[in-house]
Each structure stands twice: as C-alpha cells, then as structure tokens.
Amino acid sequence: MTEMKKHIYDESNGLWYELIGDYYIPVLTLPFEEQRSIGKWGRMHRDYLKEHRPILFNDLILNGQLWTYLADLNEQAQERLALIIEQMQQAEGVTEDLKAADQMAWIGAMNSIRSRAEEIILQEMIFGEDSV
After folding, report:
1. Which of 7, 41, 64, 107 could form a disulfide with 74 if both were Cys (CB 3.0 to 4.6 A apart)?
2. How far is it, in rounded angstroms, from Cα 126 to Cα 111?
3. Radius of gyration, CA atoms only, the chain
4. What torsion, rounded to 10 degrees, do the Cα atoms 13, 19, 25, 28 define?
5. How far is 87 from 114, CA to CA, in rounded Å?
6. For the segment 58-101, what is each residue's pLDDT rounded down to a tens digit?
7. pTM above 0.70, yes or no
C-alpha cells in the first residue's frame, strides 16, 4: 500500500488540500485579517443585511469581505455625517457666536441637527435599498 501525501495542490482550482484521516480537505483561509472597527453604522448595516438581505450577507461572509465592507461603510457614514452636520450648521446659522451668547439654544440646535443628520445617514446608507 502506498503512502498518501500529507498535502497536495490541485492546479485546476488553485487549492491546497490536506490529508485528514482518509480524506483530502481543502485548506481555506481568509485573504487577510481586517484590523479596523466596524463601528455603530457597520453594526447596524450588518444587522440589516442579516435580516433583509441574507443572500448578500452570506456571500460577503463566504468571500471574506464582510468585515472590510462594513468598516468601509462605517468610515463613509462618519464622513458623510460630519459633512451633513457642518452644512446644516451653516444653513441654520448655528455658530460659535450663538454658543457664546446662548449655550442652551446652541445645544438644542446642535441636538436637532445631529438627529436629522443621523436619520439621513440611516435612510441613505444603512437601511436604504441603494445602500449595497
């Protein structure tokens, strides 16, 4: 009886196989480990994908792209949120002068702006149909 090789390479599909018992099992690894956090927006979008777009969710997992996709989305959402807040502040005249003159009015205006900006991000990037 011949000794079976511990590892073999199949050129037709480009995979390495490892001998486990009597069977060759493909050696599958993810391309790299993503170090960035997925953050608040990434977690919300992950839950949305899991619930409403399970095929896409599973495809991203199987391709090893889910974490990178969510980290990118989180960074884009943070940048978009900052831009929207800045634009709303300018449009509504919420300035440092208002902050110095009437702090409570400034806090109320900023809370309102932030809430509306977050709602825009949720609709456009997290739960929207064109978010994927």
Report:
1. 41
2. 21
3. 24
4. -70
5. 11
6. 999 888 889 999 999 999 999 999 999 999 999 999 999 999 99
7. yes
